[in-house]
Structure of 3'-5' exonuclease:
Amino acid sequence: MMDEALEILRQKAIADKLAFGVTRLRSEFKMKPKPDAKVHDYVKSPYNGGKNPIYLLTECVPLRVTNASTTPPTPKQILAGKILAFKNKIKMEMSYQFYQLWTEMFDDVLIIDTETTGLNHNAQVIELGIIDAKGNVLYQQRFKPTVAIEDGAIRIHHIKDADLENEPTWKECIDEIKAITADKIIWAYNCDFDAEKMSNTCLAFDEDDFWLEQLDWYDAMVIAAQHFLDKRRMSLSQAVKMSRLKYKAAHTAIGDCQMTLDVLKHIAGMGKQLADQLSQLEEQKRNQ
């Protein structure tokens, strides 16, 4: 029965033209790439940027079964096999991977968001929000830029040039921002955008932007997109909707920080459920 179910799983994957990495091929399909197998594509790791090859099942062969035993497995062996299969399964789950990462770095996490004068390469930050992983607001400030706010940006965040006349400049606040972010792990939704606009603003005020390059940046958009859609990009509003959350204070720096945190907590929570299931199975094994 197990062989029949495995064969059905393989044939469906072949019919659907699915491709997987070596680890999942071995654990779920009991297959490996042929010696001359062609790589179907590469999947980029969201953590280290490395590229992992994936293969179509048509380019794979079943693993060789060796040392088959005719002795029926004991209940303990059956449970051990179930635990191993579950471990292999959850290792492929983005939520489980993220939960482990999030747990390790939790105390050092900051979440930031910016509102800017626009989307062009010279756009500057006009609002910055920073919170920690518990949701505490550490920084919330608007800034007077050296360029005008674009009409398209105003339609999104509703901040006008006149609203910033009495606000401090980025130059006046940069030391405090540096102090808050020093030695921290920075999460942002589409972090490349925020890092670029913060760098632009430093340069506009003749400030060195090297400190930004020294920060440890992580992109919440990559985690959300891969978790929900197996893609590289999705908007924050989409991620909020997929998490079944309500969007609060949209397009304010602190509001978007809070929503980014809620999305990350949602994904981590799903990963924790898998971790808890694994703990329960391991507890059963210890009690046998």
